[in-house]
Every structure is written in C-alpha cells, then in structure tokens.
C-alpha cells in the first residue's frame, strides 16, 4: 500500500496538495483492490474450475472486508474533513484543477456512503443476497413467486434500512428532500415510517445525480408513444424473413468474425481479452486490463454478433478512460446509464443499421463462402431481417422497441414496493396486468413474468431504469455525433469506426465522472437535457418504414 | 473478513479453544489473500494482456501491503502471546489435537517472521528485487556479470540485514546458535559483523527446519560419487539414439496426450486447470483451484511430457492437502524440498522408467499413427533414448545425474557470499572453476555460467539446495513406496497410477506441515533420516546399466 498515515492533529499545517495526494493514494489502493475483485469475478465466470466455487466466494468476502476497512479508514475521513474545512475557507480552484476538485467531491461521497451504513447492515445484506439468489433460482425453476416472496420482503426491509442511514446521514440529498417534503405533507415525525424518496436514493446508487421526476417524465413520454407503436406493429401481423440468420454457423468462424469486429471497432486486445461465458459481460481489472465476454449460438448468428458489439461498446468506454487520472474517482465511468449508452450506441445505432452492414455483410459472406442462402442476401434484406420487432415475455430477448416497456413495468413495481405503496404479494398480479397493458401479452407463468430477473434477489432495486436511460442517452449522443462528424455514415459503411470511437473517447469516455450526472454530461455535449423525443422519433421513423405503418 | 478483534485485557478469561479459533480465523484470511495473489500471478503468466503489466505489479504490491497489515496485526500477536503463556502453564494437548498444536506453532513462527523485520527493510527488498531482476536480464543479455554485480551486492547486504533481525529476534534458532558459536570462537562482540549461520537461516525460509550440517554431509556424499560417475559416462563417449523424440510432433496432439497423462496420474480437472506458459509452474489459489502450466516444443516431445508430469506431481500434492485443515498452516506443503520430491518422484521415478512407458508408449503411438519411426520404437529403445546423460552448462536443461552438481556449485558459492568468505566479484571465476571440476566443462560466457539463473536477482539465496533435497527425498520416498505397495511396478505398467497417488496422498500430502522438517517426515515414514546413499545407488545402478560402465 502506498498510504501514509497522518494523525488529524497534523493536518491543519499540511498543504491542500499534500492532503489531496494522500486522499488519492488511498483511492488508488481502493481502485486496485476493486480491480482485483473484477479479475476474480471474470475468472469465476470464464476460467475457474467448478470445485473452486466455495473458496472463491470466501476469497471475495475477505476482499470485501479488506476494502471496507480501507474505505472507512478514519485517516481518510480526517483528510476529507480537513479538505472540506479548507474548501469553506479558501478557493481551492487556485491549487486544484476541475478534475482534482471532482476527485475530492467523489472521494467524500464514497467515504460517506461506505461509513454511514453500519457494517452489520452491510454484512446482513451480503449474507441475505446469496441465500436470496438461491431461493430465487429455486422459485424460478418451480415458477412459484411465493417461494421467493419472503426473501424479497427481507431485501426490501434491508434496503430501506441502509437507505435510511444514507438519507439521514446526508449522502442522498435529493432523497432526503423528497422524504422531508412527504413527511411534512403527511404530518409525520422523524421517527414515523415514511419511505417516500427512497427510490430516488436507490436509483442514484446506479445512476448518480439523476432526478427521479425527470425519469418519470421521460418514461411517461415513452409510454405515450411506444404502447401505440407496438400495438400498430402487432396489428400488421407481418414479419420480414430472417431465416438466413438462423442457419448453422460454424462457431469457430463466428468467433473469428466477432473478434475481428471488436478489434475493428477499436477494442485494444493488448489491453484486454475477449472470451466466452454463459452471460456476456464486460469487466476486468483496469482500463489496461479489460476482460469482456460474449456467447455464440450455432443456429443464430445474430446473438453472438449483437452480444459482442454490445460488450465492445462497454469495453472501449473502459479502455478509453482518462489515463492521467487512472486510479482516481474522476477517471471512472459516470453511471450505469452512460455505460449502457455506449454499449447500445454500438449495438443499435451502429450495429443494427445499414451503414454498418454495408461494411460487415461482405465480410460475413467471406467467412461462409459455402452458404449459398447467405451469399444471396442483400444489405436491405439483411437489415429488415435483423430488425424484427416481436413483443415477448423476456426482457433480455426484447428488441429495441419493446425493451423500454419491460423496464418501465419493473420501475413502476419496484418503486411502489420500496416506497410502501404495494406489498410483495401484489407483485405477480400487477406484473401480469402491466404486461397485458404495455405489450398485449398474457403471462401464464411467474417464470416468464416476475421471476425472470435475478436483480431483486441481490437487492438491486433502482437498477432497471439505467437500461432505458442508456437507450435514450445513446440516441441523443449518436444524433449529436452524426451532426458533429462529417459523413459519419460513409465512414461507418467503410468500416472506419475509429472516427466515431475517437469522438466518443473525447466526448464521453475521457469525461469520466467530471460531471454530477449523465444529464449534465449530455447537456454540456448537446446543449439539451436528456430528451426522450429524439428516441421516440428514432423508433417511430425507423419502424414505420420497416413495417410500412 | 471473519476476524473479530479482542483486546488483550480480555484474553486471560478466554478458553484456549476460543483463542485458537481466533488465531485460525486470521490465518484463513491470510490464506485467502495469498490465494488471490496466486491467482493474480497465474493470470499474469497465462492470461493477462501485455499492457496490464504495470498495473498488475501495482495490484500485487497493494495486496502485499494488505497482507503485511493482517500478518502483523497486534491482535494476532496478543492472541499468540496468550496461547504461549497457556502453553507454559497448561497441557494444551488435552484441548487441542496434534494438528491444532502444529497450527499454533506455525502461526507463531509466521507472525514472528513477519514482524521481526522492519517494514522499511521489507519494502527496500521488494523495490530492489524488481530493479535487480531487470539489471540481471540486461546483464545476461550482454553476458557481463559486472553489470549485475552491484545489485547482487545490494541484495546480499539486505539479506544479511533482514536475516540479522530474524536471528536476533529468535525466529531462526539454529542460525542464532551457529552465529553465537562463531562469534565466541572468533572473540567477537554482539555488534561486530559476523555472518556465520546466516546461510542456515536463509535456507530455512525455503526448507523449514533442515540443518545445514546435514545438507553438507549429503552434498559431500553426492560429490564423492557423482563426479566420478559423470566422468565415466563422459569417457564412454557414446549416446543412445533419441532421434524419435526430436521429430515434428503436432502440438494439438501433444496437448491432448499431456492432458490425458495428467488426468491419469490423478490431477483433478474439476479442481484445477492445465494451461500453457513460457515457464511451466504449478500455482493457483487453493487446493480446489490449482492452476498448473506446461509448454510444448514441436520438435522435442520429451519437453512437454516431462514438464507436464513434473508439474502434475506438484499439483496433486496441492490438491491432496488435508481438507479438514484447509486455510490453516498445518495443511500447507511442508517445504520446497518436499514439494520438489513430489514433482521429481512422478517425473523421474515414474516418468523416466520402463513401467510407465510400458503403459504410455502404446498411447503415444496411437496419437501419431502416421509416424512410422515412432511406431517401430520398442519400450527398451524409448527408455534408453529418454534417459541420456549429457553434461551441459545450463541447470534447467540438466539430466538427473548432472543436475545435483549444478546445485552444489550454486550452494557453495551463495553460502560463501552470504557468510562473507568471498566477494561478489569472485563469483564468475569461482563458478567457472567449479564447472570444470564437477562437470568437466569450460564456461566461456557468463550468460552460460553465473548469469543463467534469476534467483539471486530476487534475493533468493538458500533456495537452490531444495532442488537436490527434492531428488534425494524422492528416491527415498519412492523406494519406500515400492516396498509398501505390492506390485507397484505392475500397477504403473497398467497405468494404475492411483495406487501410488493415494499412497502419497496419505503419507506425504495430507501430512502437510505437521512435522518440523522434511527430514522428520521422511524419518517417520521410512524409519531413516534422509539418506543420500539410496540416491547415489539409484543413479549408479541405473546409468551403469544404461551406459554399460
């Protein structure tokens, strides 16, 4: 470890630069330990032999304990307090640049988050999560929500408990404001139960600084336009041929093709790996050591390509982070929504569109010269087959038009659950009613409904919206990129992806966590707050043309 | 972390069992963090992308810092002190079994070792090692020892410094006794420089509890018999044909063959992996997560087979450790010499011999049905070609007859260096003189002489003898196995390796660190102290027959 310990009595005489450096030294240690955790997780999914499962979970738990010790170090607290005192009495921007000032803000926030919740609550939550995930898996197998319900209830209780500490301790300012307002309007005292605003706090764990009332407005707009659009497409009762995607495609060649796409987009294989796992993900230990995975299906070539391009989007974000501030909070990805915007931008804005396939289809044909059906497919036909819309029960299989409805449904239910407007027992009926309303589908089994996602079993509530924020961000960012980069579509059609990648490096990746929210980042970049109308227009125009609505 | 903190004032009222459990809880955390380090090292050699080199070394250094904090925790010290007090006043063997008593002894020893040396010295040593290794690599490239000499001098100085702390602090008892005796005989005071006994201490880092005077006796015996044996073989000026080993062997099939051998010997692929790296090794994170590597050469099939069987020996030792005491010191491998005895037992006692090849040669022929030369080789011919003796400059390429001389030469030089009988500048001339004496070779370049090994650059002095202790152990253990297991050779000739593996599991692997030295382990097993005459007889008989001496 590079950390030196300084007692708080000494601190007043230290320079701001020295205090800053000491805080950052500990941040870098934390970053390295997190990186080690990332590597252990990757290894577990990709390399680890099966009998090591038990010991790996013990190793991770020891690592979490070590991290907690460092993250809650009283020395770090004293340094941050001293910097706060200086900030109140001096203009630190004379000594520190905006990145460094952001680092202090972020380090203070992280320290607060980690220290406010008593370690017993954090431990109870970790212990519950592994039991709860097992119960979820068993309940899903039997398609019986009631078997999972007691665990979900327990998770909600613990989430409220830990969020209560954070809100009262002031690390979740927005949530506190909402909570106080609700208490006042209901005439409640500090000790009365009131969970209004808790969803805001939970969401901000994943989507920093984003206000829930903005989310509500965005989602209302999506519902208003997408429910009718989906109904219209359904009513057409027509599908474009995609049989050429569903033939047997040799896996080794799929791997070669996906690797070449990832590299072409800009994934640096000297600073990362692409392997195979059951669930594709992008992780690893550091921007110089990114581990992404994908998966391949013999008789569905779309799956491997889409997963690879998606994960490449995440990975080039990580590889593109600001080198100068490696190891410090400001170089880290801003939020899950912004992360998802990068994967979806490449997967959808690029990877579903004609310019991309103008470049890639000939290469795919070269890989499978013996496949006469593939050889005869035109880019137009490929595009139509690749962009089918089919409302279905399962979120992770959803197309870009129906996906937001899956997210909004979950958002509405999890918010009501956490804030006490519904009971856990109400979930299945509510889920099924919303599926009917939004996608016109009758859910017959919990397995295909409220038991399909693992997130709640881990206590991940407030996470789902980031998927759709990612979509909305991605359209707005890509629209701006198209306005800013001359002849972007022509570049893409020639496989000159670096033009777009470098633009994203500069405008998104290297910006890191300099801003306080994704909304701020988008505003500074495009001159507009996050705007669902661009997203709605993109989907409406595209699918009106595809389905001749 | 599973550790609870107890202040020392409370300890007198705690039960021995409670004290023991608390010490072990911390040992298990340490074991997990070491396991994580093992995984990081494996990943670095096998999986890591090249640009991650810098960050991986930072991660490892943070991990070392965290480990040091836990290993030197004052709480652990207080618990161990209290257990020592109890041990002086009660009979702990009523409460604790021999494994648990060994755990206390080993935990105390580890704690002492880690706390006696000031952290600055440990850090200086780590910092020097990376610089020194780079200097060694550069010097070797230029074949110029003088470029490496200043770094070796610095390492010797630091080694003496840290060994001084350990000797004075009493963690190296044997070394202290020797040192005091030498001081007395030379009429030196405590403050006068005297490094006699330091080699004993250094050797015990790698070969716990082994006395150097026993080592001297063993090595003297080897020199007495092996130097003439080597000279005789050389004088014969005859070699058996081994051209059938040096043909182009398809690597994929080599991999399949090696994997099948490893599994057949008993490597559990559900609790480990076999991959490829530049230098074969056996490492990993835990007995349920062993990562071993090997390497393959297209036109030398012996290399891949030998390396795989060797590493399999290490790995089945690790996988065979005592499950009941996983995570505690007593379940750990006893010493490097004993570890090497397990790899060499499989590589040489089994893998060089006719019973093994009676089983394996037909399988190798099946792999390469198109190779008519291989098809015509008999087991006898294969045996003769596989067991060639050729004195050479390079230790890692040496056969089993000349290997000990490489080790003895290094031992004699490094001991003299550390204890102050020669200067660093004397090394090349001394090396070359000994090569001439022991193997009859004229060293013309430092690259092929005193610059060939990386060990000294890392400050690993006292390590080399474990290679030859391993050979001597392996012969004695295998000789005893053959006496204990009815028809062992017949089992081996049928590929029934489990008979031997299970015997080793019980008699070596599961014994862990219960005993205080490898010599004790061998004595309890065979009724005799480590005995070089068995080894000398094995080599003499075998090669007298092979070379018709």
From TrEMBL, chains A, B:
GO terms for molecular function: metallocarboxypeptidase activity. PROSITE patterns: PEPTIDASE_M32 (PS52034). GO terms for biological process: proteolysis. The active site is at 311 (proton donor/acceptor). InterPro entries: Peptidase_M32_Taq. It comes from the Eukaryota. CDD domains: M32_Taq. This is Carboxypeptidase Taq. It comes from Linnemannia gamsii. The lineage of its organism: Eukaryota, Fungi, Fungi incertae sedis, Mucoromycota, Mortierellomycotina.
């Amino acid at each position: 470890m590079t950390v030196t310990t300084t007692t708080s009595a000494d601190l007043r005489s230290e320079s701001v630069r020295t205090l800053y450096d000491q805080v950052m030294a500990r941040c870098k240690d934390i970053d390295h330990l997190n990186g080690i955790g990332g590597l252990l997780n990757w290894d577990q999914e990709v390399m680890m032999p099966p009998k090591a499962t038990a010991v790996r979970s013990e190793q991770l738990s020891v690592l979490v304990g070590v991290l907690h010790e460092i993250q809650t170090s009283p020395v770090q607290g004293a340094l941050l307090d001293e910097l706060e005192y200086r900030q109140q009495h001096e203009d630190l921007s004379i000594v520190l640049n905006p990145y460094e000032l952001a680092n202090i803000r972020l380090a203070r926030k992280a320290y607060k988050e980690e220290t406010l919740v008593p370690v017993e609550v954090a431990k109870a939550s970790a212990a519950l999560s592994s039991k709860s995930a097992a119960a979820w898996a068993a309940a899903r197998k039997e398609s019986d929500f009631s078997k999972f319900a007691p665990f979900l209830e327990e998770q909600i209780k613990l989430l409220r408990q830990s969020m209560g500490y954070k809100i009262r301790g002031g690390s979740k300012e927005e949530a506190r404001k909402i909570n106080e307002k609700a208490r006042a309007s209901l005439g409640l005292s500090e000790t009365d139960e009131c969970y209004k605003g808790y969803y805001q706090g939970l969401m901000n764990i994943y989507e920093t600084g984003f206000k829930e009332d903005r989310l509500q407005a965005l989602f209302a707009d999506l519902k208003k336009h997408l429910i009718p659009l989906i109904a219209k497409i359904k009513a057409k009762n027509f599908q474009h041929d995609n049989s050429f995607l569903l033939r047997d495609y040799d896996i080794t060649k799929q791997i070669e093709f996906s690797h070449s796409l990832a590299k072409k987009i800009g994934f640096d294989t000297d600073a990362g790996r692409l392997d195979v796992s059951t669930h594709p993900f992008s992780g690893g230990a550091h921007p110089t050591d990114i581990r992404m995975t994908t998966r391949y299906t013999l008789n569905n070539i779309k799956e491997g390509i889409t997963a690879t391009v998606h994960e490449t989007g995440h990975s080039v974000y990580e590889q593109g982070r600001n080198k100068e501030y490696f190891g410090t909070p400001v170089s880290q990805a801003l939020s899950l929504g912004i992360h998802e915007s990068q994967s979806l931008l490449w997967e959808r804005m690029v990877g579903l569109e004609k310019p991309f396939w103008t470049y890639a289809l000939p290469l795919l044909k070269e890989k499978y010269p013996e496949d006469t059906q593939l050889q005869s497919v035109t880019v137009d036909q490929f595009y139509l087959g690749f962009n089918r819309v089919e409302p279905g029960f399962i979120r992770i299989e959803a197309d870009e038009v129906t996906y937001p409805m899956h997210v909004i449904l979950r958002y509405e239910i999890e918010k009501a659950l956490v804030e006490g407007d519904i009971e856990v027992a109400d979930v299945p009926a509510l889920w099924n009613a919303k599926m009917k309303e939004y996608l016109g589908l009758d859910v017959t089994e919990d397995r295909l409904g409220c038991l399909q996602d693992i997130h709640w079993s881990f206590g991940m509530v407030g996470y789902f919206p980031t998927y759709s924020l990612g979509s909305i961000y991605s359209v707005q960012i890509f629209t701006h990129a198209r306005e800013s980069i001359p002849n972007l579509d022509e570049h893409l059609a020639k496989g000159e992806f670096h033009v777009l990648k470098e633009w994203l490096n500069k405008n998104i990746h290297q910006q890191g966590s300099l801003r306080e929210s994704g909304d701020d980042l988008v505003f500074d970049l495009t001159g507009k707050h996050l705007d669902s109308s661009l997203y709605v227009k993109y989907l409406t125009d595209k699918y009106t043309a595809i389905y001749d609505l």
